[in-house]
Amino acid sequence: MTFFESISGFLFHPYDQCKKVLSEEKSTKKFTQSLLLVGYGALIIGVVLCFWVLYPERIYYGVPLDAELKMLFRISVSEPVIFMIIIGLAFFLIFVLNFMISGTFNYLISRTLSKSKAPSSYKEYLTVYGYSSTLPLLLLGVFTIFWVYFVEKFNFTTELPPFFDWTLTNIIFFSIFFGFLAWKWISEMRINQAFFDVSFIRAAIPELVQVATFIGFLLLVGYVGSMFAGELIGIV
Predict the structure, then answer these.
(1) Cβ neighbours of residue 119 closer than 8 Å, sequence gap 6 or more
(2) What is the Cα 92 distance to its own chain's centre?
(3) Which terminus of the chain is more solvent-facing, meaning fewer CB atoms within 10 Å of its CB: N or C?
(4) Within a 13 Å sphere around the CA of 183, how many CA atoms are in the beta-carbon half?
């Protein structure tokens, strides 16, 4: 099985692909490939996040073209630490939080819910989980690049991104954004079914925990953001 066959399999047929991987001879090479894919995906998404967060037409809307740090290139030269922080944040979210922590909790919850012992080890689970949890996010990154470049320019109209107005453009983007997240969660649910040989409902429980955690994270970010915005308004 080639690397690209694994990618297409985990994207469109995660259940069958997981069964294929488990039926093959176990090797360290497959786990290494999964780790490299997650690490590479985290780096790529970090670069995309830099453009998503620092895109000048959003942050510096209304600022003269000759203003300092107006262009993204000038930011990268004058403030490289900002880029490192954003890429580091993306690496933490994708590799540590999404892959290691969520993958571990998925494994523990599914193993607890399984009536029989898992046919393979925790390491084998992370191997298949790395593909199913990262590939939809990579496609989301590719989509975001084209969206920013062609559709855009996001039309964020508030002064404190990402605290934006619900314009039609933003509604479309975030609908597609959550569509990719749903693709990721469904893929993970399917590999839970294949790996632990459990029912649809049991396989979905770890993903429901992820969804609840994600919603809680968004609410926390919104609360912190509203406090931050309130402080700035008070200062002004």
Answers:
(1) 22, 195, 197
(2) 11
(3) C
(4) 18
For the stretch 7-33, pLDDT in tens is 889 999 999 999 998 888 776 788 898
| Residue 156 to residue 81: CA distance in whole angstroms | 25
Distances (CA, A) of 36 to 21, 30, 82, 223, 233: 17, 10, 25, 35, 44
Long-range contacts of 67-76 (CB under 8 A, 24+ apart): none
Q: Could you tell me the two tokens for 36?
A: 């490299």
The rounded distance, in Å, linking the Cα atoms of 199 and 4 is 29
CB 1 within 8 A of CB 24: yes
Which residue is listed with tokens 């523990």? 108
